[in-house]
């Protein structure tokens, strides 16, 4: 009986200590206090040192190739950005140019300037002259400062009688590749409720213009092209509305509206907002962009001495005409431009 009790207590103690009755106790490990130190690595022999040198050289070559590839990628992106900027600038220049045909031979550059200056600032008027008769050949290329001025002139001056002849107004067609870029520019501009206003009386301020045009809706900004004289403008600018309906109502109601004795020319903005500078203060375009924009026709036509236009003196479309012989630049006259009724 005593043995059973002793055995029972022994079994109970084993269970409390976490051991099963049929399992022997784990022997305790003896700790001596000694540390195991790793074996010392052998020194590299000559072959191993050569292999290590080759590995380092290979790693350096790979790193240099990665850096060169990254630099090449950056250069390609920069070239693409420059090319896109050049294409966009060429498209903007083309959008700002018009062709005028059937011009009376007795009229000169000044008559063309007076007739077309109500639409905006004219940068150049290029007329081709006949050396035998010392008269122009009846057509001219006009470049405005803005694409909006060229578009309004194209819409409103075709068929107008000047000097007894119905003039023809069209677009130069010497860079067909620019059409997708032009469409992209106009698509971006169409998203904005923005209009172009020209033939604004010089005595009217931006505040005066806003007070007239805000009848069609809330205006966010009125920006008039500054002139060289402080506080003066050049008679045209842009108005930003808060919604497209206000912009459309302003165009339909205010185009050819008599404001201060001058007929306003109003149309939708064709280009995204750009900074407006006084005359002779705008950044000069790089010669590469200018030559690409104005001289591109020579690489597209079989005859580099010809360029394609939309119309000629006989009304033929896409006819070949000689390029402009002379480029003249004269200041805008101080006299008031004639109204549309007077031109007709």
Automatic annotation (TrEMBL):
The keyword Transit peptide does not apply. One of its GO terms (molecular function) is RNA binding. It holds the Pfam family RRM_1. SMART domains: RRM. Residues 96-174, 193-271 form the RRM domain. InterPro entries: Nucleotide-bd_a/b_plait_sf (IPR012677), PUF60_regulator (IPR051974), PUF60_RRM1 (IPR034209), PUF60_RRM2 (IPR034211), RBD_domain_sf (IPR035979), RRM_dom (IPR000504). The keyword RNA-binding applies. CDD domains: RRM1_PUF60 (cd12370), RRM2_PUF60 (cd12371). Signal peptide: none annotated. Residues 1-12 have a biased composition (Basic and acidic residues). Residues 1-41, 313-344 are annotated as: Disordered. PROSITE patterns: RRM (PS50102). SUPFAM superfamilies: RNA-binding domain, RBD. One of its GO terms (cellular component) is catalytic step 2 spliceosome. Keywords: RNA-binding. GO terms for biological process: alternative mRNA splicing, via spliceosome; mRNA splice site recognition; regulation of alternative mRNA splicing, via spliceosome. Residues 321-335 have a biased composition (Low complexity). This is RRM domain-containing protein. It comes from Amphimedon queenslandica.
């Amino acid at each position: 009986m005593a043995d059973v009790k002793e055995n029972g207590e022994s079994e109970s103690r084993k269970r409390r200590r976490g051991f099963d009755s049929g399992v022997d106790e784990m022997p305790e490990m003896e700790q001596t206090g000694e540390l195991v130190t790793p074996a010392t690595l052998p020194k590299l022999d000559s072959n191993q040192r050569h292999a290590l040198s080759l590995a380092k050289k290979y790693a350096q070559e790979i790193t240099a190739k990665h850096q060169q590839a990254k630099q090449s990628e950056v250069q390609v992106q920069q070239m693409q950005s420059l090319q896109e900027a050049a294409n966009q600038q060429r498209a903007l220049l083309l959008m700002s140019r018009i062709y005028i045909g059937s011009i009376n031979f007795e009229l000169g550059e000044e008559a063309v300037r007076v007739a077309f200056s109500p639409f905006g600032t004219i940068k150049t008027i290029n007329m081709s002259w006949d050396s035998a008769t010392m008269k122009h050949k009846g057509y001219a290329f006009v470049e405005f400062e803005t694409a909006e001025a060229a578009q309004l002139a194209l819409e409103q001056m075709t068929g107008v009688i000047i000097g007894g002849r119905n003039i023809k107004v069209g677009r130069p067609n010497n860079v067909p590749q620019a059409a997708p870029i032009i469409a992209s520019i106009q698509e971006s501009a169409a998203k904005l409720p923005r209009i172009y206003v020209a033939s604004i009386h010089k005595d009217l301020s931006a505040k005066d213009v806003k007070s007239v045009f805000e009848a069609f809706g809330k205006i966010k900004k009125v920006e008039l092209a500054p002139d060289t004289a402080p506080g003066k403008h050049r008679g045209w600018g842009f108005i930003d509305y808060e919604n497209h309906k206000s912009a459309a109502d302003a165009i339909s109601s205010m185009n050819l509206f008599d404001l201060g004795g001058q007929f306003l020319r109003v149309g939708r903005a064709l280009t995204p907002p750009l900074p407006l500078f006084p005359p002779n203060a705008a950044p000069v375009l790089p010669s590469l962009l200018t030559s690409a924009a104005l001289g591109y026709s020579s690489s597209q036509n079989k005859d580099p001495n010809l360029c394609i236009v939309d119309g000629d003196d006989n009304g033929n479309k896409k006819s070949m005409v000689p390029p402009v012989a002379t480029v003249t630049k004269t200041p805008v006259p101080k006299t008031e431009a004639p109204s549309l009724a007077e031109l007709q």
